[in-house]
Amino acid sequence: MNHMTSIARSAVAQCARFTALSQPISKVLGSIQQIRNKRHAVLSCGYTNEFDRSGTLQARAHQGLTPSRLRVARGVAFAIGIVLSTPMAVADSGSIDAIKPKDYIRMTLDKREAVCLIRLYGKESAFNPYAIGNLKGKYHTYGIPQIKNAIIYDKSPIQQVQYGLKYIDHRYDGDACNAWHHWLRVGWH
What we know:
Radius of gyration: 23 Å
Structural class: mainly alpha
Order of helices and strands: HHHHHHEEHH
Number of strands: 2
Number of domains: 2
Helix content: 55-70%
Shape: elongated
Largest sheet: 2 strands, antiparallel
């Protein structure tokens, strides 16, 4: 394998990683602020260093880069340009609290556990961060995950989900489906 083929394969692999990370589009739009904040590092470390070794894409085309690989490289450059120039779809502050709790859960957990946790929190609090439960019991429960500690009541919805995930990690070995199945059996988790 010659040096040009090796570099082209490396560029294609980076394109595949970029494409995998940028799917679906809603996740891309949710990450634009992070990409904008890190764009110089991403472009300098991930892409320009690979091309600077032997010159620009144009120079590589003359050095034996196949037309199909050149199209892939152009497609990646085009996709990066779109992502970097798209207006923000979320809050300008880039705060994680601009994300809805269900979307945060889907981005944080694998699909199976995300479904279980969304069902659980839907039954517990209907994703109401101000929910107070167990009013007739000894201890009240608060927020989206219905935790007994009242400190969670003053937290943002994302922070409440994070506290709930810590609780699930401690009590159910980090498996949200175990918490959901426990709730189905006894009506609490």
